[in-house]
Amino acid sequence: MPTGKDTPRSNCPIACALDLLGDRWTLVVLRDVLLAQRRVFSEIAVEEGIATNTLTDRLERLTEAGVLERRPDPRDGRSRRYIPTECGLDLIPVLVDLMVWGSKYTSVTAPESGTAPAEIFDRAVNDRDALIAEFIKQARDSDSE
Amino acid sequence: MPTGKDTPRSNCPIACALDLLGDRWTLVVLRDVLLAQRRVFSEIAVEEGIATNTLTDRLERLTEAGVLERRPDPRDGRSRRYIPTECGLDLIPVLVDLMVWGSKYTSVTAPESGTAPAEIFDRAVNDRDALIAEFIKQARDSDSE
DNA sequence: AATTTGACTTGCAAAATGCAAGTTATTTGA
DNA sequence: TCAAATAACTTGCATTTTGCAAGTCAAATT
Q1: Do B3 and A107 touch (CB under 8 A)?
Q2: Rounded distance, CA A111 to CA B26, Å?
């Protein structure tokens, strides 16, 4: 059971979810892992400029919480792969909703300038369930690479 | 257009959304306003123990971002009412998804011990769109009180 | 008129975050 | 083969954010 702190601040599931996810970086890291299929330290959130000690900490917390799993990289002994668990995959809907809201109300003028092509944003609104299923499948496929 | 900082850290809509929403308290505050129909300072997040200066700051940021609107309270001149804008109402899906994830994976053992009755959690999974529509309606109705 | 209450400030300590510069274990290239 | 490069972290320190307790001030209550 993922919990950010040892003692949850309340028994509200939203507040408890935010004990783990409620900070400036955690969901950005998960965006990379869950939607952009990034799996190794040096690929994650680099363009957003996260500090390396913060990234270490977030990957550690997410691993400890059971959202990600850490495995040795079979292709490079220096590397590790962070792959999403079922619990992690279940956060994809949250990320899709944030993407929809962010692209509607945020200063990101053109959706196509972001992480994903414009088509994704349309589908997030009009074909949400299928899009989520597709992200889940892509994430699963990336893990057996 | 809501932006947490003057300069967004990236042009990804998820990262930009998190510039405003990505911290320990903002979404808890919005949970109270959007799902629990709390509208005044002294009712919001009290049971979670947010510091008053932090609550002031979050309400200010959300107001400035156009997520909430601040109005004088017609019933008490000392009070103000924070009511959600359209932009704010559009965050309800995010909160519902967080609730679903939190109640599935968080140490909140029984959903009924949280903010809402158990029925809500079932509907969030099985009847999501209708539940969201209902929350939107409730939020709108609470504002004309 | 005196007290209470709602919505904040203010001051200060503690925690989180950012930045730059190490460290260690592979892996790569001459 | 062996020095240079690289991946994934640590460490130290400055800055920012957050929490806690106490104080302010105007409006409402008694």
Answers
A1: yes
A2: 24
Residues A63-114 have pLDDT tens digits of 999 999 999 999 999 999 999 999 999 999 999 999 999 999 986 654 445 5
Q: Specify whether the CB–CB gap between A35 and A116 falls below 8 A.
A: yes
Q: How much is the mean pLDDT over chain B? A: 88
- Nearest CA to CA, how far is A99 from chain B (Å)? 5
- Nearest nucleotide to the CA of A51, by C1', is C18
Chain B hits for A102, CB-CB cut-off 8 Å, are 12-17
- pLDDT reading at B4 higher than 90: no
Separation in Å, CA B105 to CA A14, A30, B100, B139: 11, 16, 9, 27
pTM comes to 0.90
CB neighbour burial string for A67-76, b if at least 16 within 10 angstroms, e if fewer = bbeeeeeeee
Residue B76 Cβ < 7 Å to strand C:
yes
Residue B62 pLDDT more than 50?
yes
**Partner residue facing B11 (CB), from A15, A104, A108:** A108
- Which residue has 């959600």 as its token pair? B84
pLDDT mean across residues, chain A: 88
Query: Strand C and chain A: which residues 69-128 have CB closer than 7 Å?
Result: 76-78
